Amino acid sequence: MERYVDLEEMLSFREMKVRIQEELRKKHKGMVTMALAMNIPGPVKTSPDILLAFEEGTKMLEQAVSEAGIRIKERTGVSENAGYMEFYALDSLNPAAVKELAVRLEETHPLGRLWDIDVYDKEGVSISRESLLAPVRKCLICGQDAKGCARNRTHTVEELIREVEHKINDWKMHHGV
Question: What pTM did the predictor assign?
Fold first, then answer.
């Protein structure tokens, strides 16, 4: 059953994200922390398909981190009507290297555009794509700068939602899910 998310739920979800990230940072002093969430337009942020895409994201992210020789010290997840999030404290002192790995996943995996992977340094400051000279996030539909399309409302929410569903269904078809 689809549930619409109201503004209050969205704000409380964002506050929870900040709180959990801060708790991890304080507990694992000096370590890189990371959060995976979903980029889902529109008022419905959860569904069996969105959860499937999120779980693929956690699997791929954990695999990439592990292959880079980085240990996960702690992980904690949140599943709410406002969305899904997974938080990590990593045995790493190099946030830029972790962000590069995250950007590579977002750019190369068929579902990567739907993932939002934030990486924070030991002070809790988010590492931006720009600081790594990585490309800005592209629009789901036209491939232009996503922030520009969002600001100008170039595409309708319905179009964006259809594109998310299309990406997930495509991926499911190719992976026999």
Answer: 0.93
